[in-house]
Amino acid sequence: MRLHVGCAMWSLKSWQGRFIGSSDRLRSYSGWCDAVEGNTTFYATPALDTVRSWADQTSPDFRFVLKLPREATHVRQLSDVEVLSEFYRVIEPLGDRVHALWIQLPGSFGPGDLPILSRFLRGLPTDFRYAVEVRDPAFFHDPRELSARLAESRAEWVPFDTTAFFRTPPTSDGEREAWLKKPRMPLRTAALTDRPIIRYLGRDDPARTIEGWQRWVPIVAGWLREGRTPTFFVHTPDNADAPELCRRFHDEVRALVPELEPLPVPQALEPEGPATLW
Asked: What InterPro entries has UniProt attached to this entry (predicted)?
């Protein structure tokens, strides 16, 4: 029984000296969380040696949810599977650490485009699991056809829960920026597969973030009792406390499911060396 929790990145300036050290930042992060969103792969396929370093810095139990390159999803609009051949070659060192490959689709992708998605999913390598995120609200108003097509490929539907964030006006510069950029998505709490993935956006105030995720705690606990392996990603506009919040969510679910093993205790960071002139 596993509940994976993680953030949208494994390195942030405000985490330095608190959650991560000055080197091997992924290794430090993996002491706090056991999953991460791989957003960088959307913009560029990393070098093979870089991916090998990701594997070296994480335990076999750590999980990556890697976003498919935008060349496939946005530029070529799901018309070309072959463009992903280098991406698949490069991520091979991660092995089972690849929990799912994440297909984030633009808001322009609507219900009329579902045959294109079905063809694309059928053409992808079957030794990976896939998770699809859509942004057109029409899918949420009538989810049946998308759910059926995803089920054909054992693909999960990834909801981005922004409902708590948009409940009240922003109160910080970071929240004001997110208010303009983040999608206002309808709430979805159903799982299609044994590996549901939730992306949750809270507020910069940790107490309000915790308050906003309360609906998810019993849902995730129920999935665990059903034998599913959920992954819960915590976002806030500044992400300053995100690793600690991930552990708090895990603890709240574990209070309902005591047989869920706790996350490992983070290792103390090595103190930074004294400043020198050299």
From this structure: DUF72 (IPR002763), UPF0759_sf (IPR036520)
Q: Token digits for 18?
A: 């608190």
Global pTM reads 0.94
* CATH level 2 (architecture), domain 4-256: Alpha-Beta Barrel (3.20)
254-265 in b/e burial notation, b at 16+ Cβ within 10 A? beebeebeebee
Cα 164 from Cα 168, distance rounded (Å)? 8
- End-to-end C-alpha distance for the chain, whole angstroms: 50
Q: What is the pLDDT of residues 88-139, one digit of tens each?
A: 999 999 999 999 999 999 989 999 999 999 999 999 999 999 999 999 999 9
Query: Two tokens at 195?
Result: 């590996």
Residue 119 identity: R
Cβ atoms of 269 and 42 closer than 8 Å: no
